[in-house]
Amino acid sequence: MSATPQKLSKKMVTFLWEGVDKKGKKVSGEAEAAGPAFVNAILRRQGISPTKVRKRPKPLFESKRKITLKDVTLFTRQLSTMITAGIPIVQSFDIVAKGHENPSMRRLLLTIKGDIETGTTMNVALRKYPVYFDALYCNLVAAGEQAGILDTLLDKVATYKEKIESIKGKIKSALFYPAAILVVAFIITAILLIFVIPQFQKLFSSFGANLPALTQMIVNLSIWFRHWWWLVFGGFAASVSSFLYAYKRSPKMQYTGDRLTLQVPIFGVVIKKSIIARFARTLSTMFAAGMPLIDALESVAGAAGNKLFYDGIMGMKSDISTGMQLQSAMSNCGLFPNMVIQMVAIGEESGELDTMLGKVADFYEGEVDDAVAALSSLMEPIIMVVLGTIVGTLVIAMYLPIFRMASAV
């Protein structure tokens, strides 16, 4: 049984080599390969006579940085620029890899470069690493290699990924800000209940009088929280972990969660607009690359990032395979606004579907920008009110007995 690509990639080792080129000049470098024999073979194909090949010693503190979408996007943009400048693809990989800041990405690119040097096409070499290069990416690279326009399609892929990364970043920032404030509010409240209120409780016990209802309620809450704090924090962590576990493994949970996400007030509208922008941008890029519409829709469905839209787009694919037009399939899907359907209809009639989809993507990306800006300005006063209410209620409850005692005196 053959090893999986992941297992094969673990066997790759970085070698330092020295040799002599065809002109008798001493040269040196490094290469990723499964063994010294592979390095020797690669060098001989390049016209270099190897004199020394040895494993590169591991650094004392080897970086374990993860490979991010930003790393892949930067690599794509740089590779497109190199190929456009007429630099051979193997040499382009070598230049981009050695200049990359992320050691993990550098090792990955040198491994892919080694595969290409042995005669493997670029799209096949990339498909060994689906975690970093998805089907959409590899399909576009394959189309570029077949048509001889790899530099053009890499430029389209880089632009696509830059726009998708930008819109994802804006959505994350819009969601992160209120979530972070709520977490901070919860931590502050927990500190007050555990450490501050008990000090007031000791003071109140010396009064020998009944406490106001609000104060008594806060004191009881503090007593309960100090006794069961582990259950609160543990229950919260267990609930989040269980939800994420179930969400990853249950299609029904994914469908329900994604459907409810789109119905969340304010946030749901922004998320839906970002999904439509991603749909239009992805389909426009693939259609412009000459991908058949049915094949493109499968990659578009995976890029949607929402189970509800994934099922809807796959349903559209089935409708189109029976001869239905894209605009009719989108109308039957029931997930797209009328404006998007009309733009697609115009694109189909005029033969400029990719251009119209690009305009739709531009429009909805602008809508997301405006919505995120409005959301940020709206959330600030709301968060201040929430924090003020929580902290203010605790402070008032603690000072009520003191005020009552002062008025009695």
What can you see in these coordinates?
The protein has helices spanning about 5-10, 35-45, 70-85, 90-100, 105-115, 120-125, 135-145, 150-205, 215-250, 250-260, 265-290, 295-305, 305-320, 325-335, 340-350, 355-409, and strands at about 15-20, 25-35, 50-55. It is mainly alpha-helical and about 400 residues long. Strands 2-1-3 form a three-stranded antiparallel beta sheet. A hairpin with a 5-residue loop joins strand 1 (about 15-20) and strand 2. Mean pLDDT is about 80; it is low at about 1-10.
Task: Give the key terms.
409 residues, mainly alpha, 3 strands, 75% helix, flat
The largest β sheet comes out as: 3 strands, antiparallel
Extended strand count: 3
SSE arrangement, N to C: HEEHEHHHHHHHHHHHHHH
The main sheet orders its strands as 2-1-3
Radius of gyration: 30 Å
Give a summary of the structure in a few sentences.
The protein is mainly alpha-helical and 409 residues long.
Produce the secondary structure layout.
Layout: H1 5-10, E1 13-20, E2 26-33, H2 36-45, E3 49-55, H3 69-84, H4 89-99, H5 103-117, H6 122-127, H7 135-147, H8 150-205, H9 213-249, H10 251-262, H11 267-288, H12 293-303, H13 307-321, H14 326-333, H15 338-350, H16 353-408
Helix pairs in contact: 3-4, 3-8, 4-5, 7-8, 8-9, 8-11, 8-16, 9-10, 9-16, 11-12, 11-16, 12-13, 13-14, 14-15, 15-16
